[in-house]
Every structure is written in C-alpha cells, then in structure tokens.
Amino acid sequence: IRKVRAGFTPALPLIPAEILFEVLRFFKYMAYKGSYEALANIYWDKQAEEFVVDIPEQKVSRASVSGKISAAFDSRRFIHYMDIHSHNNMNAFFSKTDDMDEKAARVYAVVGKVSGFFPEIKVRIANSRSFVEIDPSVVFESVIAVRDFPEEWKSAVLMECDEADEKRAFLKQLAGNKDLEGFALKLPQAL
C-alpha cells in the first residue's frame, strides 16, 4: 500500500520572481507608510498566458486588510490563482482571521518582516477550508532566476577540492557556518 500525502503540483508555470519582487516592494512601501498590511491578487491570463497582478480596492490597518475582488478580471479569461498579503513587520504566519477569510480554492501567501533584507514568505493551498502549507518554491520562481551573472566570472575561479576542504565544510555545517577558528572535533577516519 502506497502512502498518500497532501500536496500540490501546479498546472501553471511558476510566478516570475520579478512579479514577486514588485509585490514585495509594494508591501515594503505600505509598511514604511505606517506599518500597514496590504493585499495583492495574482491572476493567470489564459489568453496572454502570463501572470497579472491586481492591487484591489482595500481597507488596511496595522493588523488587517480586507479587499474587494476586482470586476476587471472575468473568470472566462482569468484564473484567480493567488491572494498574497503582508503582515508588515510581524512574522509570516496564517492567522485565525486568515483561516476564516480564505474560503476559495486557490493558493494563499503571507509575507512577514517586509522591512527586513529578506522578508519571510509562507504559502498554502486551500480547498473547502482545508489548508496545506507548501514550500514557496512550488509556486514562485527562485530569486536566483531573476538575473544570471556574467559568464566571464566563471573563468576567474579555480575550483579545488581535497579531503581537508571536505572536512572543513562538514565542520562548518556542524558549527552552524560560524568561523572554525578554535573549533576542534576529532573526526572518524572514514571522513
């Protein structure tokens, strides 16, 4: 007997990192203006085969946001794929209010610590008031995909790896990526 696990495999492409960054910049602006929460809706345009962001009319405060679904996005052409809202500078988490509000079968995301260098992002799928958290990478393109780096950078690097390097990397992981100066651990010969 095979185990069945809850999960989500999207039929649509990943939401481009550029779209995520635009939304994050908007959330950062709202946090700067007064630690306000904010909402963005992400639609899939079936004709153009691309994602579209809508900032709906919304009433915001420091602890809540309520928005209206825009009439401009006809369901014959657009799929309402995701609601993403901010928790300004609080942690990213799905609140009891979110549990009550998020009724539709779609993807939901919440962003916290928006003023930090790397905001926190939590994502879940919803269906009939059942929720399953998923990794953001299931729906968002990696931030590394935003831009490649110049190809000539690769030619400036000589990669060496020996047994001592492997041991140092292992120890560094054990030490939580801290400086290994003065950190000694007797390793088995197998390493």
Low-confidence region ranges: 182-191
**Average pLDDT rating:** 85
Placed side by side, the strands forming the largest sheet appear as 2-1-5-6-7-8
Could you estimate the helical fraction of the residues in percent? 10-25%
Q: C-alpha Rg, in Å?
A: 22 Å
User: How large is the count of helical segments?
Assistant: 4
The proportion of residues in beta strands is 15-25%
Shape: globular
Q: Looking at the chains present, what oligomeric state does this protein adopt?
A: single chain
Coarse structural class: alpha+beta
Largest beta-sheet details: 6 strands, mixed
Give the topology string: H per helix, E per strand.
Answer: HEEEEEHEEEHH
How far the N terminus sits from the C terminus, by CA atoms, comes to 38 Å
User: In total, how many beta strands?
Assistant: 8
Please give a structural write-up.
The protein has a six-stranded mixed sheet, with helices on one face. The protein has helices at residues 17-34, 96-101, 152-155, 163-174, and strands at residues 39-45, 50-54, 58-60, 65-67, 78-86, 107-112, 120-127, 130-134. The two termini are 38 Å apart. Mean pLDDT is 85; it is low at 182-191. It has four helices and eight strands; from the N terminus they run H-E-E-E-E-E-H-E-E-E-H-H. The chain has 191 residues and is of the alpha+beta class. Strand 5, helix 2 (96-101) and strand 6 (107-112) form a beta-alpha-beta unit.
